Amino acid sequence: MSNTPPRIALITGGNSGIGFATARKLAAQGCHVIMASRNQQTSAQAITRIQADQPDASVESIPLDLASFASVRQCAAAFQAKGYPLHILINNAGGSIPGKQASFTADGFEMTFGTNHLGHFLLTNLLLGDLKRSAPARVITVSSQRHIPGYAGGPGAKFDYDNLKGEKFYDSATFYNNSKLANMWFTYELQRRLTGSGVTSNAVCPGFVPEAIGDRRTSAFDRLLYRKILPRMPFARSLDQASSSYVMAATDPRWEGVGGKFIVDGNERRSSAESYDEEKARRLWDLSWAWCGLDFISPAR
Length: 301
Prior knowledge:
- This protein is an alpha/beta fold.
- It has helices at 17-28, 40-53, 69-81, 111-133, 172-193, 210-214, 220-229, 239-251, 278-291; strands at residues 8-12, 32-37, 58-63, 88-91, 137-142, 199-205, 262-264, 267-269.
- Strands 3-2-1-4-5-6-7-8 form an 8-stranded mixed beta sheet, with helices on both faces.
- α5 (172-193) links the parallel β5 and β6 (199-205).
- It is globular.
């Protein structure tokens, strides 16, 4: 039996969907996995499921609501109070917020942008000291190819600082694509600021995973569509395939010391031309830093 301490992995939204499948695989590799998610009852059930198959699995949960800066700070503080190192941070939670009208986070930001980008921006920066002290360490942020203009025939992102709260118009698909471009800017800018630290920052696109979407649908027709019909499409990915991409980016020796990449199906892909604009990435970083109230810690540079 190995005396090597387990690697510590924290995954947001690790109690369901792709996050849960990833948590299960990381636990099977011997990682101590922390699920950071809103619903602690669901997390408890998820832990029970993992330990039913893997009695020796080391898994626990910490409450986290990415739509609340206060909750994000509490989550980071709860993690740090445990005294653990942190080797893997997977910014997984989030998604597209349905509806024809914008909804907002506890701090007044549009929900998709606030959850997918700002919540993870704050959490990552609060935990950067832990990651650096635990180096080599990896930050994996979940993005999507949907931010790329023309991908699957879609318009891609249309990022507009004058419309971040739906001041001009609101369209859930556009706001999702915008948040995924923000994830790319964050990933690349974080990597630039982490140079020489032993911590890497990469983005992963899990692809179209109908099963993960179906779990969040309430109508019987939608659940049938996403669970039974769409998974048969050649462009669809299973939970196993999607989670394998996460685990590869987080643990595979191939990606050790390699950062600033967009990983799709285990391989590097080009993201949108706009995502490589360093000036735009720095602007989003600086604004996000101020919005999240991070002036009390030294910026990652």
